[in-house]
Design brief:
Elements lengths: L1 E3 L4 E4 L5 E4 L3 E3 L2 E9 L14 H8 E7 L3 E9 L3 E9 L5 E8 L2 E9 L2
Parallel strand pairs: 1-10
Antiparallel strand pairs: 2-3, 3-5, 4-5, 5-8, 6-9, 7-8, 9-10
Length: about 120
């Protein structure tokens, strides 16, 4: 699915996790991807799911450039028992489109191509 950088997309995963990708931002020469994750209890488990969610998120969401050189400049996340906010930042090295792939237990759930022009 082709989307614009001003679009927003919600992906529901089989375990109830909902990942909302917010519109893609550009500031200070960088691309910014922000996601709001909800639909599950992040306090469940020992240790709580929230404490390990950054790793879980990275295993479910991958980002690649379709054109240009995508260089990650970091990211992070924060949240509470009902919502986790995740952020990724990339250098703008002539990237004109991003592909985001959403998976669950290794299986493709959704994918999108974002036109950055």
């Amino acid at each position: 699915m082709m989307t614009s950088r001003t679009d927003q997309l919600a992906v529901a995963l089989p375990d109830g996790l909902i990942i909302d990708r917010l519109p893609v931002g550009r500031a200070n020469g960088h691309w910014h991807l922000s996601f709001v994750c909800s639909g599950v209890d992040f306090n469940q488990g020992h240790p709580p799911r929230a404490m390990q969610f950054h790793e879980e998120f990275r295993s479910r969401v991958s980002v690649a450039a379709l054109a240009g050189d995508l260089v990650s400049l970091g990211g992070g996340g924060r949240g509470d028992e009902d919502e986790q906010d995740m952020h990724m930042r990339f250098a703008d090295n002539g990237v004109t489109a991003l592909e985001i792939i959403y998976t669950y237990e290794g299986a493709l759930v959704a994918s999108e191509v974002i036109d950055l022009s």
